[in-house]
Amino acid sequence: MTFRLSRSPLLAAALAQLLGWLLAFVAAHLGLVAGLWPLLALQALAAAGMAASLRSPWWWILFQLIFSPALVLLHGLGLAPGWYLAAFVLLALVFGNPTRTRVPLFLSHRATVDALAALLPADRPFHFLDVGSGTGRVVVALARAFPRGEFTGIEQAVLPHLIARWRGRGLPNLHLRRGDAFALPWAGYDVLYAFLSPVPMPDLWRKARAELPPGSLVCSNEFPIPGIVPEAHIVPQGTHRPLWLYRVG
Length: 249
Prior knowledge:
It is a single chain. By secondary structure, this protein is an alpha/beta fold. It contains 10 helices and 7 strands.
């Protein structure tokens, strides 16, 4: 059941919330807890614990902690329904659909960009792919620094993609696409960079091995590929996030 639910994050989230409320109501019925906020605290902790037991990503666990208390607080504000719709649209534009991709919006540190630049050849053409390019911090900076390289960034969320296009305007060696990076071909790229989450890393490695040319370099920010020994890892100065380096055989 754990495996199936981990593949269905919405189902896992709903189950955790329901079980959290079930525990809270049982505790209230037995007189073990009284008052709204103690009840909400118990429900939130139970839901987060359930999410952790289902091996949900950390942001889902955080979501379980704040979901019910946030609903009560928002209800008390008496906001018009339009504000909830506006918030939903804004979140969709910024984050896309993380319930399907299981990847939130992470922004790469400038030091990571510098570390990647040190790995790229300055004397010959190459092709670089950023899987989940976000606002374009990595591909825009590297495309400016390496005019002989060809840089492609793929981002699903609308607003980060538009920001990247604005930041990278006028760069002839920069190609930005909006869509699901795992549904698009990766053939022909010499270097792949990803700052995703622990969940899709096995799928990333399988696709990289199947489609990238032999000898290609796979660079993963912070999250290692489980079960695969990296060629090396770097901790860029100024950040605690390691850059894991893998070579496609």
